[in-house]
């Protein structure tokens, strides 16, 4: 069963299903959330994600798609753990970088690149992945 945590360890989670999809996202919101050029995301049914320690804090803002995006993060270290988006009711988007151990990331090879038009010029595209303009 995949498990993950925030930077300080006060927030821990696990999930009990395979991701519906795995995608990297270059949208402007994901850049702000990650502090990097993109995020690596695992889309899961909400009822398959269990927070096993702590209680995430939420922040909702308007995504560039025009819909609300809620980030769930640790209130101690600020590490974003997962997101929810109005376009995907009943689903969560786990930030794969929060998985514990290298095995989870090795299994998280993206099947798609979202908002590929926002990819920075020096970052090569993932030729094996479906290139999408939006979600």
From TrEMBL:
Signal peptide start and end residues: none
Annotated ranges, domain CENP-V/GFA: 2-109
Pfam family, one: GFA
Sorted UniProt keywords: Lyase, Metal-binding, Zinc
GO molecular function: carbon-sulfur lyase activity; metal ion binding
Family listed: Belongs to the Gfa family.
Protein name: CENP-V/GFA domain-containing protein
Origin species: Penicillium brevicompactum
């Amino acid at each position: 069963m995949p498990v993950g945590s925030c930077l300080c360890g006060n927030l821990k989670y696990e999930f009990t299903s395979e991701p519906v999809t795995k995608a990297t996202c270059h949208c402007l919101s994901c850049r702000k959330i990650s502090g990097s050029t993109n995020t690596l995301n695992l889309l899961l049914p909400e009822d398959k994600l269990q927070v096993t320690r702590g209680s995430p804090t939420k922040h909702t803002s308007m995504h560039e798609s025009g819909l609300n995006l809620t980030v769930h993060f640790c209130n101690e270290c600020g590490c974003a753990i997962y997101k929810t988006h109005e376009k995907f009711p009943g689903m969560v988007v786990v930030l794969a970088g929060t998985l514990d151990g290298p095995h989870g990331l090795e299994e998280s090879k993206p099947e798609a690149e979202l908002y590929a038009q926002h990819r920075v010029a020096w970052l090569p595209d993932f030729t094996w992945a479906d290139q999408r303009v939006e979600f």
